[in-house]
Design a protein that fits this description.
Chain lengths: 159, 159
DNA sequence: GTCATTACTTCAGAAAATGAAGTATTCAAT
DNA sequence: ATTGAATACTTCATTTTCTGAAGTAATGAC
């Protein structure tokens, strides 16, 4: 009589949302571990990759700090490091000269694309989904991204 | 002419796997941030929550270290802390008395369930998916979890 | 029985994060 | 037009977390 059984039977009575989130967590952690394992020759700190992933579009450093639930000083240090690596660049927010926008450089976009691309390669084998299922999943994920991008958290740069 | 445009148009030419992974990343990071924000009165370190999530079933500490891509000493320290909090317990692996199995306690299972449950609550509003889409997504995620649990990474406790 | 290997712990040192104080800018109130 | 509270990020001393080598205990091939 083992505890924390992971079988389908333990899903009985769980809402679709919970089943969905359990899957998202496990899938993310799994892919993350494989991506990090692959990157051993040129590893970025976990939070550096996290930051690159969040910089789909330029963000204020304060907003990034809030997104990452860390102190502004943490973002400063991490941005320094990524700037040194040539992966991000700072530019002044024209609407508020106190603020800096952080954006990916060409190299940063490549790094970002590489991470996502590698994760995508892993996706099929890790997930066990077939072609049709992946297409359905991708369609749902596109809607999800659209929703998240629309709602934001917090506001991105003032247009 | 902005860079890193996140619109659907920028998805053109991307494989379903890449679109899937972009969504998984964004969804996970978003939910993670909201869950952490909620937990401010009794916050667990990020990696502590990560560990609780990985302990769906008892795991060897060495395996956990590999899953989390950290040193065994890191898992020792983190396990100490979670044990102090009453969230996990260590027990000897009967098949190898050098090894320890780490498992969730009643409180740990509650914490785990609470995290997933709260994330599930957020899921609907964050994702923007409707009832039918969530059910489809949950079905796909159940298959994903089954696949991941079957393949493991690395081996779990010897049965 | 021996000894190389494995599993986790300990601990000194390194790395990363925090939070208070600092500098520069903004903008509402006067 | 001026002022000062608030905001945005940086600096830096301190705290927290992680690493990796060395240690102890157990395993298993020979």
């Amino acid at each position: 009589m083992s505890c924390c059984d992971f079988s389908l039977r333990s899903d009985e009575g769980l809402s679709p949302e919970i089943r969905a989130m359990k899957g998202v967590y496990l899938l993310y952690l799994k892919i993350e571990e494989l991506v990090d394992a692959e990157d051993l020759e040129d590893p970025l700190p976990q939070n550096a990759r996290h930051m690159l992933l969040l910089l789909e579009s330029p963000k204020r450093m304060g907003d990034l700090a809030r997104d990452m639930l860390s102190q502004p000083s943490t973002v400063t240090a991490l941005a320094d490091k990524l700037e040194e690596l040539g992966l991000v660049a700072r530019r002044r927010d024209p609407s508020d000269r106190r603020a800096w926008l952080l954006e990916l450089t060409e190299a940063g976009r490549a790094e970002h694309a590489e991470t996502v691309s590698y994760a995508a390669e892993l996706f099929r084998s890790v997930s066990g989904l077939d072609d049709d299922e992946i297409k359905v999943f991708a369609t749902l994920m596109t809607k999800v991204r659209t929703t998240i991008e629309k709602s934001g958290l917090p506001k991105g740069p003032k247009a």
